[in-house]
Structure formats: C-alpha cells, structure tokens
Write a structure and sequence with these properties.
This protein is α/β, with parallel strands linked by helices. The protein contains six helices and ten strands. The structure holds flavin mononucleotide.
C-alpha cells in the first residue's frame, strides 16, 4: 500500500514519529514535510501528522488539507497530533487538550479518517527559538505558577505507543473495528 506521510513539524518530533509509524506499517512510504508534500492523488493511504502549539494544530496542515480536500476525501486517511498533554484536562466546565486538539482536523473531513490519535512529543530547550522559549516560560511560571529559571527538557516520545497506533491502522485497514 503506497503511503504518504505528511508532517507539519517545527522541531522534528512529528517526523521521528512518522518514521516509527512507517517502520511498523511496513508499506512503501514517503515521509515529507508539509511544505514539500506532493499531491496525495497517487497514494493509497495518506497519514497527516502535526505538532500542537498553544492548543492548536500547526496551521500548515490545515492549508494542505484545504488545498487537497477533494482528493483527500476519497482517500483512506489517518491523522495524528503530537503534543505533551495527550490526556486533556477539565477547567471551568470545558474540556481542553488531548483529543480536543485534533478535533478540528477530524471535523475538516466529511468522510472521516480511518484512524486518529494524539501521540506524545517532546520539548527540547536546546532547539527552541527565543520566542518559543519566552512563551513557554510564561506558560510555566504565570499559568502553572512554577518557579522555573529555564525551560526543562521533557520527552514523552514513546515508540511502543507509536507502534500500537500503527498496529491499529493495520487493523482498520483489514476491516477490524479497533
Ligand atoms: C511554544 C510551544 C507551545 C506549545 N503548546 C502546547 C500545547 O498547547 N499543548 C501541548 O500539549 N503541547 C504543547 N507544546 C509541546 C509540543 O506540542 C511538542 O513540543 C511537540 O513535540 C511538537 O512537535 P514538533 O516537534 O513536531 O513540532 C508546545 C511547545 C512549544 C514550544
């Protein structure tokens, strides 16, 4: 099954995860940055992966979907968001984070993706732009009331989690429910 994996990634974790998915699927796969992504027409399976920033999917993935929506509607599709808070949380009567992050992408399609999920990424302070570092420090110290002097390195990247996700894709392609 010819597979296209489109990654909208700022710091590379979505791309690493895309590689793990491709490895487990075992199909002929093209992994590409969204800015170089080809028309999905010649592929049998299209996987759309994207980092989450300030509660939202990276906008480039939405641009790609909108540009190719007609073809994508006819394809078998999978989507995955990459972030730190994959579980979500409940504040003032509202659900935030987790699956809520990827809902707008799922909703973009009339013909829903065969599989979707939220996978763990990482924050590596040595890679951050000054602006992102400032935003994170504000988030940690103002919102979460921490007393950090620097952004901590946090990785929750988990190959086993990603392989389980890929195995679910294989199940769904075989017509299984889960
Ligand atoms: C400025 C900034 C904002 C972020 N906002 C969120 C967020 O709202 N929720 C979350 O769970 N993770 C958030 N993250 C963590 C990213 O989703 C995580 O680093 C992810 O692995 C990024 O994927 P990428 O490396 O493919 O770009 C944020 C990270 C940065 C640097």
């Amino acid at each position: 099954m010819k597979t296209l994996i489109v990654c909208s990634s700022k710091y590379g974790s979505t791309k690493v995860i895309a590689g793990w998915i491709a490895e487990r699927l075992g199909f002929e796969s093209l992994i590409t940055d969204v800015k170089d992504a080809p028309n999905p027409d010649e592929f049998d399976l299209v996987i759309l992966g994207f980092g989450i920033y300030e509660d939202r999917p990276m906008p480039e993935i939405l641009d790609y979907i909108d540009k190719h929506i007609k073809i994508l509607e006819e394809k078998k599709k999978v989507i995955f968001g990459v972030c730190l808070d994959t579980r979500g949380f409940f504040v003032k009567g509202k659900i935030h984070g987790g699956w809520e992050y990827i809902r707008p992408i799922i909703k973009r399609f009339k013909d829903s993706p065969i599989h979707a999920g939220v996978l763990h990424g990482e924050i590596n302070p040595s890679k951050l732009t000054t602006n992102d570092e400032k935003r994170l420090m504000l988030f940690y110290n103002k919102m979460l009331k921490r007393n950090y002097t620097a952004v901590p390195y946090r990785t929750k990247m988990n190959k086993e989690e990603v392989w389980t996700f890929a195995e679910r894709i294989l199940n769904k392609l075989e017509g299984k429910f889960y």
